[in-house]
Amino acid sequence: MNNQIDTSIPVLTEVIYPSLEPHFQIEDASSQTSRSQAAISEEQWQTLEQTIRENVLRQVLGRIDFVLEHRVRDSLADVLQTAVESLALEIRSGLHKTMEEVITRAVTQEITKAKISK
């Protein structure tokens, strides 16, 4: 099975930093801006969260067909390889048995012919 990581699929350990909109101000020691003006409101956090969810979902849905097809193909290849190996063993075993029977019969016939001709 192919275990390569597709870099276009986001992983849960990635840190996504939101870009602050221009009307937000970061508080510093010389500024009189209050903490309530600099903080992102609950509604803005919910909007940001929803946007992130939608973006991740859109990226995942865009890749899901490719990933599923790839995994099914890999799994099917493994199953087919196992089936082919089993079938080859059965054919080899059957061929060995058939050859053994044919050779035994031929040798027996030749020995019988040799005994009759004496």
Characterise this structure.
The chain is mostly helical and 118 residues long. It has one domain. The chain contains two helices and no strands. It has helices at residues 35-38, 42-117. The longest helix is centred in the C-terminal third of the chain and has 76 residues, at 42-117.
Largest sheet: none
Mean pLDDT: 80
Number of helices: 2
Q: Strand share of the residues?
A: under 5%
Residues in helices, as a percent range: 55-70%
Structural Rg: 36 Å
Number of strands: 0
Distance between the termini: 67 Å
Order of helices and strands: HH
How many separate domains make up the residues? 1
**What are the segments in which pLDDT stays under 50 over at least 5 consecutive residues?**
22-27, 33-38
Structural category: mainly alpha
The backbone outline, from C-alpha atoms, is rod-shaped
